[in-house]
């Protein structure tokens, strides 16, 4: 990305543009000729941002820094930035709730209350399915973790805002694909031929490839829907982690053995990972919160509303998405086999 750029259309603001999902969205917007503006930290990596395109504004959502410049003259906002793993619970609320509140307030103070606002939340804001049936958007939210609760609180900021008539909420399920470093751990485990399972056997989870998430975001940006209406974004049917891992194994030509981990040992591993993370000052994907999520039997969501109202259906099958992701990991040498 360059420091400046020009297009006759109002710029599109993307928060979290240097991250996993955000960088794919920025890449697609630039390819379609949009003038893109990214709000990034000075310390953020720009490895995935297109060079020589669009604008960069340096700031920090949680600290309310750089937002006046970021929102100036925008015609569309994709709020992708968020905290998915943290050293302490307060970090989730600072990075998800406080950050969203600052962005919404900046738009209100600038007079941009009619701007189209696409807010990226998470399936975690709704919580797991209590009975195995895919959770619908009408179901009362039951977030299980601080991450899920903070994402739900961030959604509710829009409910009391003048932005609400033009706001829409997307709740992706587990997102995987090129550039991801979290589900990468599953690819690494499958490559070694072993998957350690901390939850119930055949637990189901809804997943979605990052390219499909981008398609859903674009559909949300084009939609006339508003009122902070929520939409789950996922492949039509859930899979088990064993199926996901074995799909990776099939692509690698090897069998994946599943090893169940007793609950006390899983909780101990989560606690130990948290302690190591705090010593290093870097949050880990493994934590007691993640173990709590893994203990649930069903993380499945319905995609019917997104299909009917946004015209969105995920295109990539699990096999196609895994193969594409695996190829990218190999090219980048994130996987050695």
Cα end-to-end separation? 33 Å
Strand count: 14
Query: What is the CATH topology of the domain at 12-180 and 207-236 and 300-316?
Result: Rossmann fold
Q: Beta fraction of the residues? A: 15-25%
Count of individual helical segments: 11
Low-confidence stretches: 1-7
Give the helices and strands as they follow along the chain: EHEEHEHEHEEHEEEHEEHEHHEHH
Strand order of the largest sheet: 3-2-1-4-5-6-11
* CATH architectural type of the domain at 12-180 and 207-236 and 300-316: 3-Layer(aba) Sandwich
In one word, what is the shape?
A: globular
Which class best fits the helix and strand makeup? Answer: alpha/beta
Largest sheet: 7 strands, parallel
Quote the average pLDDT.
92
CATH superfamily of the domain at 12-180 and 207-236 and 300-316: NAD(P)-binding Rossmann-like Domain
- How large, in whole angstroms, is the Cα Rg? 19 Å
User: Percent of residues in helical segments?
Assistant: 25-40%
* The first-level CATH class name of the domain at 12-180 and 207-236 and 300-316: Alpha Beta
Give a written overview of the molecule.
This protein is an alpha/beta fold. It has a domain at 12-180 and 207-236 and 300-316: NAD(P)-binding Rossmann-like Domain (Rossmann fold, 3-Layer(aba) Sandwich). It contains eleven helices and 14 strands. The chain has helices spanning 20-31, 67-71, 89-109, 146-159, 184-192, 210-222, 241-252, 263-280, 288-294, 304-310, 318-331; strands at 12-15, 36-40, 55-58, 76-79, 116-120, 167-172, 174-176, 194-197, 204-205, 207-209, 229-233, 239-240, 257-260, 298-299. Strands 3-2-1-4-5-6-11 form a seven-stranded parallel β-sheet. A three-stranded mixed β-sheet has the order 12-9-14. Helix 3 (89-109) links the parallel strand 4 and strand 5. Helix 3 (89-109) packs parallel to helix 4 (146-159). It is globular, with a radius of gyration of 19 Å. The two termini are 33 Å apart.
């Amino acid at each position: 990305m360059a420091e400046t750029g020009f297009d006759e259309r109002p710029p599109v603001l993307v928060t979290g543009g240097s991250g996993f999902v955000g960088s794919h969205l920025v890449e697609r917007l630039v390819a379609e000729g949009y003038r893109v503006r990214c709000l990034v930290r000075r310390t953020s990596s720009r490895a995935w941002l297109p060079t020589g395109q669009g604008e960069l504004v340096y700031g920090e959502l949680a600290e309310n820094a750089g937002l006046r410049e970021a929102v100036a003259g925008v015609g569309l906002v994709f709020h992708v930035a968020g905290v998915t793993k943290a050293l302490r619970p307060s970090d989730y609320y600072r990075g998800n709730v406080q950050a969203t509140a600052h962005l919404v307030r900046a738009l209100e103070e600038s007079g941009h209350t009619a701007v189209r606002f696409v807010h990226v939340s998470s399936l975690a804001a709704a919580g797991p399915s209590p009975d195995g049936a895919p959770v619908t958007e009408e179901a009362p939210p039951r977030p299980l973790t601080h991450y899920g609760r903070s994402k739900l609180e961030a959604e509710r900021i829009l409910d009391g805002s003048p932005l609400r008539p033009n706001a829409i909420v997307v709740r992706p399920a587990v997102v995987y694909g090129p550039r991801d470093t979290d589900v990468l751990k599953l690819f690494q485990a499958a490559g070694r031929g072993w998957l350690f399972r901390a939850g119930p056997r055949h637990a189901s989870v809804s997943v979605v490839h990052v390219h499909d998430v981008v398609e859903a975001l674009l559909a949300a940006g084009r939609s006339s829907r508003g009122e902070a209406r929520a939409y789950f974004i996922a492949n039509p049917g859930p899979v088990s982690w064993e199926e996901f891992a074995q799909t990776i194994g099939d692509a690698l030509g090897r069998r994946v053995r599943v090893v169940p981990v007793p609950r006390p040992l899983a909780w101990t591993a989560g606690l130990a990972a948290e302690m190591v993370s705090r010593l290093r000052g870097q949050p880990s994907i493994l934590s007691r919160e993640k173990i709590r999520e893994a203990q649930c039997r069903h993380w499945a969501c319905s995609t019917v509303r997104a299909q009917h109202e946004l015209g969105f259906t995920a295109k990539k099958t699990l096999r196609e998405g895994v193969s594409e992701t695996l190829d990218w990991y190999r090219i980048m040498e994130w996987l050695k086999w």
